[in-house]
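Two entries, shown back to back:
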Amino acid sequence: MTDSVTHPHLQVAIAGPVATITFARPQKSNAYDKAMLRALDEGIRKAEEDSSVRMLVLRGEGKHFSAGADLGGEESAGKPGPGVAEVCLRLSGLPKPTIAAVQGACVGGGMAFVICCDIVIAAQDAFFSMPEVRIGFSPTPLIPFVLRAVGERHARRILMSGARLSADEALRIGLASEVCVREEMDKAVEDAISALLQSAPGAVAEVKAQVARLRNVNPTAELLTVLQCGFDAARDSAEPQEGRAAIREKRRPAWAIKP
């Protein structure tokens, strides 16, 4: 079904457990304006609030994923909306898996959205760039997301040079999860979806929350004790009980959807 979030250049569709948001402005290389940002923010919010949605896929229509902000376009009218960093924060904090399928240009804010996804599948012709310094300004609000994704050394090079990264380079530094020929992208996305649909939704949300909380924390005996206590407390909740029952009964757990 098509979701109620509508915009002429942004499509939000929910098919079973998968929500897909597609930049649909190929004649402008899927560059976004303020109205598109509002629609994107609303689409992510909708995917979070819909209990039937298990994951979100982000795509771009046509030759390119997204050329970033439409710097040459007119300011869109209407109520003020979120900035790119706010949308990135919502996407990054979504307690459900996120997949970005990237082809062609993935530039500026478009690259920032991709950085905030859990799994990035890139076509061999994809290239990544944050060229703001070449226009004369620093993408300061987006720096925390870049740092988190690729670390300080790679972030400095990417942000200070504004140079393009190939798909293979993106894979090498951890920006991309997988690289494939464009003709195989749909299958790669389907494979990622199928794998994620075997995981318990509550457990996945807990993984995302704990990774976000612990990514810069050094393990200590005290921390591990706290984490173990949380694990022990959750061990007899509904999902673990169902998972153990499925093993005993040699069946799929209730949350697992057959590909």
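entry 2 starts here
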Amino acid sequence: MKVEHLRNGSDVASEAPAPSRLSSAIFLLLLIVPALGAVLFGAVDQITWALFYLLWAAVVLLWVADAWQRGGFAINASVLLIPVAGLIVIGIIQLLPLPYVASIGPGETWFFELRLIVLFTFFAGYLTFIDSPARLDRVVNFVVIFGAGMAFYGILQRLGSTEGIYGLRETPQSIPFGPFVNQHHFAAFMEMTGGLTLGILFGKKTPRDRRILLAVAAIVMGAAVAFTGSRGGLLSFGFVVLFVLLMRVLSRERHSETDGPMSRGLRRHIGAFVVAFAFLAIVFTLVLFLGGNDQLLRGTGAAAAGVEVSSGRFHFWPIALKIFLEHPIIGSGFDSFAVAFTQFDTWPGIFRVEQAHNDYLQTLSDSGIAGFACVAAFIVLLFKRGLRIVKESHDNRRYAAIGALAGCFGILVHSFFDFPLRTYSNAFFFLLLAAIATVSIPEDHRRRRKPHHHH
């Protein structure tokens, strides 16, 4: 059986083959799992992952069956897979019973490694099976509609003061929002879906009727972020809006004869910023109208959330650095922060601290320089490849890439203050957005060659 490498470069001009039933089934499962994870409390429970392992096995078996049917294994050999594979290799090394590299929390590292393998498989699936304009449109519509629905439900739940998630699950150690156990991580989810929504909303070719629906969806998502009262979430959502605006300005095509004078383009840029300001004003007004004064004050930092403004972060972050310095090359072990923290903690130990509340510092403490290099490489490759797609693509494909990059940028900013990607449904959606931003769609290449026929 041969391997069909679907290269992710701009020099690929071949048409995507007609989707088979097996391919369509894989594509459907690839979308069901992240949605299911978000609905099931953000996919943070072991029982949810028991279901995910079964669905992962189903995807693998269907993928193998599809390869058998077509006579070759379809895989998009994107360079973005390499850093993720590097993290898996680091986890394997940490599980070896060797001095200086063995995880100090092998049980936690083992479960993290299994989940990392599942995420890697799904990311490879997104890159491989989002292979046509029709599928890209379906994925974009799915993310926007699902995100808007989650935002609407979250706001209704907060306004209704429902006890527990779905009125069933109590969360005594955290403040939930929507189906998420952690309200800050729900805000991060809105940053991703809101980024994609805003990207399509600001697209030049987006029809007016669709633009109205997208504007309503974006406003609801922004309001949901404000209602969480998450300072990091509100700040990051602001960066999402700014990213979309700057990309819209910087990625404009060269003026043609029909574009009018440069002053007209300048007026359009100013108009875009006015629209963005109006969007944020509408979001804040809606939140205030619905009674979200306290959440908005906390989110903007106008009201103190507690005695210590950092909510403990100024204590967690230096300890994360101490753990890193103790295990600088390969870290203390994936997901072992709760164990390593106790060795340096000067607090009484009343509360169990499981995360560093900064994903970059925790990456250093968990996996050392090796893991941090993989994460940094992934981010660099993501934006390098994504910006290339933005530059070389047109119309809907361009603005889908802009929106997806904006969503990724938002949660990466949020990760400086929290650990939103360790809510695994967020990790699934992050990788889905990374695929939307970077995957090559065959139609794009035909469009790019059209101008050359006039010379």
